[in-house]
Amino acid sequence: FRSSEADPDVWMKAAVKPDGEEYYEYISVYVDDILCISHSAKETMSMIAKDFKFKKDEVKPPEIYLGARLEKKQLNRKWIWTMSSGDYVKATIKNVEVRLQEKGRILLSRATTPMSSDYKPELDGTHVLDSDGITMYQELIGELRWAIEIGRVDILHEVSVLSSYQAAPREGHLEQLLHFFAFLKKHPKLTLYFDPNCA
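The structure assignment produced for this chain is given below.
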């Protein structure tokens, strides 16, 4: 395996399936998580197990990777890998609600869109947040960006727009971030289906 130029934690090597089809095997590593994508994944993982101890000495199909739930589901009589960030989103919402409760606040009960439809962040004239507010804003942006990384692509554009205000966010910008979490609470599930025909 050689480390990929795009990401040094993604390792790859050329391989050939038993039917002669050429493809690339991948190993993705993040801290203590290892994900192997290969026609003969057990063989590759057994090779790694010679040098590294696995939890419970177990090699099995992935269930969770970096906070995302991975499952094989049937679609049009084909088994397809899927990814959902539902568990991560629920845990993040719970943390936000605890933080708000400490301030005597709650999330909105109705949020049908990620951001208020008439909100224009560039025209926000509310007060600039204090240092604690800025820290909270940046933490919430980080949590939302990770949700996007593991599947919540439906909020990508709006989070990207609000990310550009991290240096000096305003009270209105923070309110819109909280609106995101209200939206995610109302719509916690989004599943991505990976097309098995894409190389």
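Interim note for the steering committee: Strands lie at 2-3, 10-16, 22-30, 33-37, 64-65, 68-75, 78-84, 191-193. Helices lie at 41-49, 86-102, 131-149, 156-163, 171-186.
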